[in-house]
Amino acid sequence: MTKEIEAYEHILCWIDGSDETCRMARRATLLAKALGAKLSFLATGTRPSPSDRLNEYSRIEGITFPLPVYLENKTQSCMDQAIVHAQKSGVTNTNRLSRSGNALAAICDIARMEVADLVMIGKPRSKFRLAHLFAPSLPNSLDKRCGLTVLSGA
């Protein structure tokens, strides 16, 4: 059974810094505005592992763990642009989210935690040109493994 588009209340848009996912973030903003939906942008990155020097610095500065997720410059830039575009478009109910680890697991977890009823993703970039030919597509995996409604494209 397909959910009617008017019923979407929370859109989760995953970005990785590629041109395709940045364009999808703009489309997610337009759709969220049209539907009056909440909009969350999610990026995945890496969490630095603590070292003895970092632990000592954290202790002195009173920083608690876990450390924030590190996003690549392109990903951070895409996230910043998405938030600015949403604000300029009048979408006020937006979230900036970041998680470390596998994109599929992060999207599934965040969609459940944030009660997102539509996930929008662009074509993820790959470090290996042919990697996408041999791996299951992210939209299919999200649909099958997580039971999420996914809108994908570039």
Account of the 3D structure:
The protein has 154 residues and is an alpha/beta fold. The protein has one domain (5-152): 3-Layer(aba) Sandwich (Rossmann fold), CATH 3.40.50.620. Helices cover 44% and strands 18% of the residues. It has helices spanning 19-35, 52-61, 73-88, 103-113, 131-134, 138-146, and strands at 10-15, 38-45, 94-100, 118-121, 150-152. It has a five-stranded parallel beta sheet with strand order 3-2-1-4-5, sandwiched between helices. Helix 1 (19-35) links the parallel strand 1 (10-15) and strand 2. The longest helix has 17 residues, at 19-35. Residues 127-135 have low confidence and may be disordered.
Biggest sheet, spatial arrangement of strands: 3-2-1-4-5
Measured by DSSP, the beta-strand proportion falls in 15-25%
Instruction: Indicate the CATH topology.
Output: Rossmann fold
The arrangement of helices and strands along the chain is EHEHHEHEHHE
Q: Largest sheet, if any?
A: 5 strands, parallel
Radius of gyration: 17 Å
Q: Distance N terminus to C terminus?
A: 25 Å
**What overall geometry do the principal axes of the alpha carbons give?**
globular
Low-confidence stretches: 127-135
CATH class: Alpha Beta
Which percent bin holds the helix content? 40-55%
Overall mean pLDDT score? 83
Note the total helix count.
6
Q: Helix/strand/pairing class, anyone?
A: alpha/beta
What's the domain count?
A: 1
Number of strands: 5
- Look at the structure and name the CATH superfamily: HUPs
Just name the CATH architecture. 3-Layer(aba) Sandwich
